[in-house]
Amino acid sequence: MSAFTALILREWRLAHRIGGGGGTGLVFFLILVTVVPFAVGPDLNLLSRIGPAILWIAATLATLIGLDRLFQADEEDGSLDLLSTGTLPMPLVVLAKGFAHWAATGLPLAVAAPVLGLLLALEPAATGAVFLTLLVGTPGLTFIGAVGAALTASLRRGGLISAVLVMPLMIPILIFGVAAASAAVSGTVPFKTPFLVLCGLSLGTVVVGSMASALALTLSSE
Amino acid sequence: MRLIADQLACERSARTVFRDLSFTVEAGEALAVTGPNGAGKSTLLRLVAGLLRPSAGTLSIDGGDAEATVAERVHYLGHKDAVKPSMTPLETLDFWSRFLGGRGMPAEDALERVGLGHAAALPSAYLSAGQRRRLSLARLLAARRPVWLLDEPTNALDAASQATLRGICKDHLASGGLIMLATHIETGIPARSLALGGRA
Questions:
Q1: Looking at the domain B2-195, which fold is it?
Q2: This prediction's pTM
Q3: Residue numbers of the domain that contains A76
Q4: Are A85 and B49 a contacting pair at CB < 8 A?
Q5: 3-state SS class at B15
């Protein structure tokens, strides 16, 4: 087993054990989406129109939860020092940690979205579209968040600063995610156009986010 | 194999910690970095481990695998233990061994050697400070790397564990390894001494 897969496995284990907080984002996501129909009222047409946007907003906010511990926990107990003396280059360390974090927090959001779509009276096509867009969009959100987490790794209570830093950068992914999900039902543009832009944004973010986070971690350790 | 530091200088927040520091450590030799609190012992070790960049001077390793960087050939044992409370000692050691390149003792044997064999499957949250320290020591055995950087390695260790540490270090030196240790007490590891000035 290579260092890369060993790191993914470790992160996955940590996320699912006591104190790992793997499920926190998902619970927040559930709460937020369940509360919306109560606030908006039982207007099914309205709910199904704003449903994709609600799911995407909730997913974006849920991503922010738990991100502050992504590097901070390792910084506090000295693991980060050792991670940087490994044979794995720092951007790949970030990639492994980010991927495991996404698998533990981002992926469950996409999987839960179709179920919550029922509460928002989503049509089957919209439900499928929200699932697909969240599936490809959440990695992008995670890796944008990773940059903020890396910048604030050595700050106590850096979670808020991190959120303020990364939220504006998440907006493009949010826009194209919601655009693609809405396009699936109210077709002024075909679903494919915004969806492909979303895929591109997400892929680019994974690469740039890994590099930028690695740089931020190296700088903050000095 | 030889670790060579040439005219090293280190600045932290515009303050010079040390400068013009040159030394070599030969294979099979230990170098004890001594000095009062705040003299820069830990800083020097972090510098050698590649966690800090020197503001001047060079650091190199002569011989061995020429492809590997200095950071890839050192074991850094700092003040923090890098032990996650929710993982067992065996899992922790297994991970670090794989991540740091392995080729050392099997994780179980390394745990036995530091006297943690009985606690291998217990969550690390239940370990005492000394036991966590011993788990960190086991890391040095589980992944094979030639240069050991030990920052106050005897912290939290009882007399028996200090003897184990001495034994482990002697074995490492005998097999041609290098050790740099920062300490302000007598550890019993035969070492040449490098005194850092302190409040210069």
A1: Rossmann fold (3.40.50)
A2: 0.91
A3: 3-221
A4: yes
A5: strand
